[in-house]
Amino acid sequence: MELPLGQESVATTRKIIHVDMDAFYASVEQRDNPSYRGKPLVVGGSPNQRGVVAAASYEARKFGIHSAMPSITAFAKCPGLIFVRPRFDVYRDISTSIHAIFKRYSDLVEGVALDEAYLDVTENRQNIPYASTIARHIKTAIVQETQLTATAGVSINKFLAKMASGQNKPNGLTVILPEDAIAFVEQLAIEKFHGIGEVTAAKMHSLGIHTGADLKERSPLELTHHFGKAGNYYYKIARAEDDRPVEANRVRKSIGAETSFAQDLSDISQMLQQLEQIAQIVEQRLEQHETRGRTLTLKVKFSDYHQITRSKTMLAPISELSTIFEIAKALFESIDLENRSIRLLGISLSNLDNAKQTQVIQLPLFQNGNIIF
Predict the structure, then answer these.
(1) Nearest-CA neighbor of 279 among 23, 42, 45, 26?
(2) Given this model, what pLDDT does residue 354 score?
(3) Is the pLDDT of residue 324 over 70?
(4) What angle do CA 276, 278, 281 make, to 5 degrees?
């Protein structure tokens, strides 16, 4: 396909694949224990210990169960639910094998999590002209070598590839061609956009923004007025634009989690309960990445959208739930909450003990003026 020179050509020269394993942790447990197959299952903490769901099988998702949900809530939705403790060492080993498959096709692989990655295959090791062909080869290899399935999305940038991979799960493959990109985004419901959560979607609905086409009508000034710095990102993705490169060997500078509340919290005990659940998610993510951190940062956003952070740096790195929650709770209690309600809480750890410098590699923007999928 010949593309005209200029800005539109720059925006449509890359070929990006997003690979997302299907219910990864839960699928591993069902693979390794035949008695779990076909049954609603979650990986995570026990409902008797105020645990949090790390992953849910597709059978469990039919009951409305999802990751980051309190385990007691998940159990209430499905009393026959099977709870399995995470085996992150197993998940990491499988993830390493899957990334080895990716590297057969490209050096530009950006792991987002153990079960998710972006690949830039504009230029690839096997000189395969179609990104969709590479995606099919990867999916087949994953099934053959791990007995697990993955869903892939293929498009011209990371945002569109991510959106494509969410269209046909599980075990699907969706391609968004350059000429279809804008139309795809315009018809997409706003709550389906990657990067727009439940609370933000509700605010957009209140502003009359229900689809990508609605979002595209809003100016950068209006969007930044309502959504801060994120407004610029929303303005671009409404036009199917995303110039973020696939970063090979990216090393995380921080690991954290945050929750926006559909209804603002005004009860201190509820706030602390939510804070403990967020701390559990942070602990799980630290374990996934086999790391610890020395600086803990608490993020609080009030009902008026005013946001504050509080941080504490320890002499030694931490990763245990009890310590994370104890420090976060102390920081939280130092904040004046009189007559104030909260719409978001977050905890992150930085100064990670595996931090190191990394190089960001980006392919040239042009490849003979052609792109094919």
Answers:
(1) 45
(2) 65
(3) yes
(4) 115
Between vectors from CA 340 to CA 295 and to CA 271, what angle results, nearest 5°?
55
Are 91 and 21 a contacting pair, CB within 8 Å?
Answer: no
pLDDT tens profile 203-250: 999 999 999 999 999 999 999 999 888 899 999 999 999 999 999 877
* CA 201/CA 197 separation, integer angstroms: 6
- Give me 348's structure tokens: 């992150």
Which residues partner with 205 through β-bridges? none
* Element housing 161 (H / E): helix 158-165
Question: How would you classify residue 78: left for phi > 0, otherwise alpha for psi between -120 and 50, otherwise beta?
Answer: beta
Catalytic residue list contains 8: no
Instruction: Report how many helices (DSSP H) and strands (DSSP E) the chain contains, helices first.
Output: 14, 12
Backbone φ/ψ region at 314: left (φ over 0), alpha (ψ -120 to 50), beta: beta
In this structure, are residues 307 and 300 in contact, taking their beta carbons and an 8 Å threshold?
yes
Count of alpha carbons within 13 Å of 121, Cβ hemisphere only?
30
Q: Supply the pTM of this predicted model.
A: 0.78
With a cut of 90, say whether residue 350 has pLDDT above it.
yes
Instruction: Please tell me the predicted confidence (pLDDT) of residue 126.
Output: 93
> Among residues 116, 191, 258, 326, which one is catalytic?
116
Q: Do 258 and 347 form a contact (C-beta atoms < 8 A)? A: yes
Closest CA to 273 of 191, 184, 203, 345: 345
Three-state secondary structure call for residue 293: strand
How many Å apart are CA 349 and CA 363, to the nearest integer? 31
Give the ranges where 16-70 is alpha helix by DSSP (H). Answer: 24-32, 58-61
In this prediction, residues 90-112 reach a mean pLDDT of 95
Supply the pLDDT for residue 366.
Answer: 29
Q: How many residues does the structure list for the chain?
A: 373
